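@channel sequence for tomorrow's demo:
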Amino acid sequence: MSNITSILKQHYLFSSMSDEDLVKIAEKSEMFDLKKQESIFFQGDEANNFYYIVDGQVSLARSSPNGQEKIIEIIKKNEIFAEALIFMPQKAHYPVSACSLEKCTIIKLKNKLLKEILNDSHKTSMAILLNMAIKLHALLDEIDSLTLHGASYRLVSFLLHQIPKNNIKNNKENETANIKLDIAKNIIASRLSIKPETLSRSISSLSKRGLIKIDGKHIVINNKKSLQEYLFNN
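C-alpha cells (generated this afternoon):
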C-alpha cells in the first residue's frame, strides 16, 4: 500500500490530497501488471473504476455497430484515464474499450471513494477539473485536425506531441529530438484516422523533405522548428 501511495503522490491530481485521504485511496486501490494486448475493460462495462498508468501505454478504442474500431486516444506513463465518469449523475458505463499496447503496470482506483473525497476537497476537485479541461482542448484540436487537415499534418502534430520535455537537444540553429514509437503502425493510423499505407507514405514524404529520419523504431526529428512551421503553413 505504501508503494501505491508514493506512486500516486507523483501525479498532480493526488499531490494536493491530505495524507489521510491518500491512504484511503491506496487502501482501496489495486496495482497489477498486464501483458501486451490485454484488455482492461470493454465498451459498455459498468464504470466503477478509473486508472493510473505506472508504466507502459494503453489504447482507448470505440467500436461501431458493424464491428469497426477507432483508436480514440493513447494513454501513456504517469497519466490517468476514465476519471471523467466520476461526475456522471447516474450509473455510468465506459464509452470505450481499454487495452494494453505493451507490458504495463496499472493502478485501479475506485470512483466512489474519489467522489467522496472530492466533496470535501476543493484543491483535488480543481485538479481533476484541470485535467479534464486539458483533455477537452486536446479533443477540440483533434477535431480541427481531422476536419481541416490531411494525413501529413496529422502525423506531424502527433509526432510533436510525442516529444518528451526532457528529450530536446538544443543546437545553435535548431532543436532535435528522438522519439521511440513502440506502437504498431496500424494503431497509429487508426489514432490519426488514416489508412496504414497512407501513414507509410506520409512518413516517407517527411523523411524525403529532411524533416525526420527513420532509425528502426526511432524517429529522429532533425529540426523541431521546421516541423512546427510545416503545421503553420499547412
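heads up for whoever presents: The radius of gyration is 19 Å.
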